[in-house]
């Protein structure tokens, strides 16, 4: 399981440039005018993980298969998008299909690139987009409450439950708060997700800075960091222009370029790591002579559900899992050494998979 992250923001903030860098394609047209992205561009990228390469080396795996992440480049929103301004309605629907939002904010000055509002202020830009998403949510909530009223009066249990959650969202939105600020119980979490509220999506602010500020950020990205911390959201600092350049280089050249720029790693790595943390995701591995493969699960996933990510039959017929911690697998030279040292564990249905576990599942067909 990977996840789908929608790249959003006002026009001309660097969304499509970032998308091109992330997917190593020029599929998304990066142009200096609003709405250059008409259809949402979708790209899948491999999630870089040095652990996978190490496991494959030890096991002599013929093939390395990383887990993947999907990015959706969604056209620039403008004020009034919630009422259909620009190309608002179409793109609000695209956001609903994503698990999280990467909100790209312009944190650079460039007279050659027009800002849709005629000024550079990433905090105001973030507030403008958030306001449009809240207005769209409020309209959706009010419409759904109206449609539910008859069923609620008839005592329909499902409708009553849905009304309760919608009213909680409505109260927050009317107070000017996004839906993600609503406290939702574990029992309600699934029903809450099914409401598909735009402002219930987790947000990662992506501060797009000029090349010179890629390593340490600038005064504008510092303002975004302060805003994100106050909201309980995350942020990363990236120069989309640098990332696009890096994406066209061979690995050795890219490493040299990063070193020259004073960067320890590519922005993609930081973005993925921040995305993983945002959605509480983690990775486990399956390793053998044929292939070494990474699998993405949510934190707290039990072994049968983790097996189900590979195939539904693995979960339905789950018997047990043979598990080796990553450090033990590497430190003891692979599965054989881990077995001899007593580091291969047999785990049952209640075992909660840990990040980096190397696993083999036994199941009934």
Characterize the structure shown.
This protein is an alpha/beta fold and 365 residues long. It has helices at 15-23, 50-59, 88-96, 122-153, 157-174, 189-194, 219-231, 240-247, 251-260, 267-279, 303-310, 312-316, 326-331, 335-340; strands at 4-8, 41-46, 63-65, 68-73, 100-106, 202-208, 234-238, 281-287, 291-298, 318-324, 345-347, 358-363. Strands 2-4-1-5-6-7 form a 6-stranded mixed sheet, with helices on both faces. It is flat, with a radius of gyration of 23 Å. It starts with a strand and ends with a strand.
Describe what is shown at a glance.
The chain has 365 residues and is of the alpha/beta class.
Task: Quickly list its features.
single chain, alpha/beta, 6-stranded mixed β-sheet, flat
Principal-axis shape? flat
Strands ordered across the widest β-sheet:
2-4-1-5-6-7
Q: Specify the helix fraction band.
A: 40-55%
Helix count?
14
- Tell me the number of strands: 12
- Measured by DSSP, the beta-strand proportion falls in 15-25%
Structural class: alpha/beta
> Rounded to an integer, what's the Rg over CA atoms?
23 Å
Q: How is the main sheet built?
A: 6 strands, mixed
Head-to-tail CA distance between termini: 22 Å
In N-to-C order, the SSE pattern is: EHEHEEHEHHHEHEHHHEEHHEHHEE
Spans where pLDDT lies below 50 across 5 or more residues: 25-38
């Amino acid at each position: 399981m990977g996840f789908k992250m929608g790249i959003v923001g006002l026009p001309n903030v660097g969304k499509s440039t970032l998308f091109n860098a992330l997917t190593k394609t020029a599929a998304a047209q990066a142009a200096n005018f609003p709405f250059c992205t008409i259809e949402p561009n979708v790209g899948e990228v491999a999630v870089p993980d040095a652990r996978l390469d190490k496991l494959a080396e030890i096991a002599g795996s013929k093939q390395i298969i990383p887990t993947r992440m999907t990015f959706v480049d969604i056209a620039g929103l403008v004020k009034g998008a919630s009422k259909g301004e620009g190309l608002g309605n179409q793109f609000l629907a695209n956001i609903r299909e994503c698990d999280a939002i990467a909100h790209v904010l312009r944190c650079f000055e460039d007279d050659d690139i027009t800002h849709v509002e005629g000024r550079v202020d990433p905090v105001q830009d973030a507030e403008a987009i958030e306001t449009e998403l809240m207005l769209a949510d409020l309209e959706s909530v009010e419409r759904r409450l109206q449609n539910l009223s008859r069923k609620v009066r008839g005592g329909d249990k499902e409708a009553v439950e849905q009304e309760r959650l919608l009213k909680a969202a409505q109260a927050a939105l009317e107070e000017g708060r996004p839906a993600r600020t609503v406290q939702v119980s574990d029992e309600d979490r699934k029903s809450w997700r099914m409401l598909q509220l735009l402002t219930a999506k987790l947000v990662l602010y992506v501060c797009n800075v000029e090349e010179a500020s890629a390593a340490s950020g600038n005064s504008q990205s510092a303002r975004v960091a302060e805003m994100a911390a106050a909201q309980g959201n995350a942020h990363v600092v990236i120069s989309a222009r640098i990332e696009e350049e890096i994406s066209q280089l061979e690995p050795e050249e890219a490493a040299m370029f990063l070193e020259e720029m004073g960067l320890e790693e590519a922005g993609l790595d930081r973005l993925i790591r921040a995305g993983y943390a945002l959605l509480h995701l983690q990775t486990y591995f399956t390793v053998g002579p044929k292939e070494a493969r990474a699998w993405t699960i949510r934190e707290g996933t039990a072994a049968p559900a983790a097996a189900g990510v590979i195939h539904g039959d693995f979960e339905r017929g789950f018997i047990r899992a043979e598990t080796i911690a990553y450090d033990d697998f590497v430190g003891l030279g692979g599965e054989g050494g881990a077995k001899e040292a007593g580091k291969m564990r047999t785990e049952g249905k209640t075992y909660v998979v840990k990040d980096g576990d190397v696993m083999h599942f036994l199941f009934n067909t």
